[in-house]
Design brief:
The chain is 31% helix and 25% strand. By secondary structure, it is an alpha/beta fold. Strands 3, 4, 5, 6, 7, 8, 9, 10, 11 and 12 form a ten-stranded mixed β-sheet that branches. The chain has a two-stranded antiparallel ribbon with strand order 1-2. A hairpin with a 2-residue loop joins strand 10 and strand 11. The protein binds adenosine-5'-triphosphate and magnesium ion (MG).
Amino acid sequence: MPSLPPTVSGPPGQVPAPTMLPLRIDRCPTGIEALDAILDGGIPRGNMVLVSGSVGTGKTTLSLEFLIRGAERGERSLFLSVTEAKDKLVQNLSSFEFFRRELLEDGSLVMVDLPVVTAKLGFDRDELTHEDMELLLRTIHDLVQTLGIRRMVLDSITSLGYRIARDEQIRDFLLRLGEMLSEANCTSLIVSEISPERGRYSTRGVEEAIVDGIILLHNTQRLGDILRVLQVVKMRGTAHSRALYVLELTPIGILLAPHLKGGRASLE
Ligand SMILES: Nc1ncnc2c1ncn2[C@@H]1O[C@H](COP(=O)(O)OP(=O)(O)OP(=O)(O)O)[C@@H](O)[C@H]1O
Ligand SMILES: [Mg+2]
């Protein structure tokens, strides 16, 4: 009778530990090198991430760089603008070296003024009804599906929220938007405008529990200078640092450097 090949090593009677293969998750690199290093390669694909910060902290620039870097990799990207007109955004983008107008012309980067869309859909009242929200979700869904969108930004949920009366409606909208985008394998950033007080990542306070991740931007005063600072507060599905990084908006894009400790700093 042939003998069985030895399969188990170690003391008899002891069950061997299973081989631990690293679980590979598909990531969406933001294209902002230092941020990808913090995120161990990028945002887990299909995640919905809140980019939260007070005025002028770089939320729109970071979101647009994420889309443009994606478009350059062949991932079609969609920017839904609630506050700023797309023509003005494109004009501002011209000062960044990473932006090429051809991305707009060949449809790799799609920019949509949401107020124009809602006007076309016939939302004539300031306050959006349940039916309006349904129609808006369906419109975004159709855009994502027909154009094959892999990265999306909504700038901002705060501005859209001014037209949504109840917190439950915002929660429901974001939950369903997140589900829909995740099914489409589309990674998204949702911009949230916050006032300088700390401890909250959105105006209404419902968004932070629903999203998969939070990237917080704020201003900090140090030795007479105002610095922009970035912190990854949460990111489901990946290990990451929660340290503060100083953020610089430069013509070649966003740069991050470790925020040196010491001195007196006050966050805004
Ligand atoms: N090309 C550029 N180079 C360097 N800095 C820039 C450039 N464009 C904008 N900025 C700086 O970035 C700031 C605002 O950036 P951005 O619009 O991304 O911030 P935001 O957080 O979206 O602001 P808001 O709250 O007004 O929407 C500007 O006030 C300006 O100081
Ligand atoms: Mg902005």
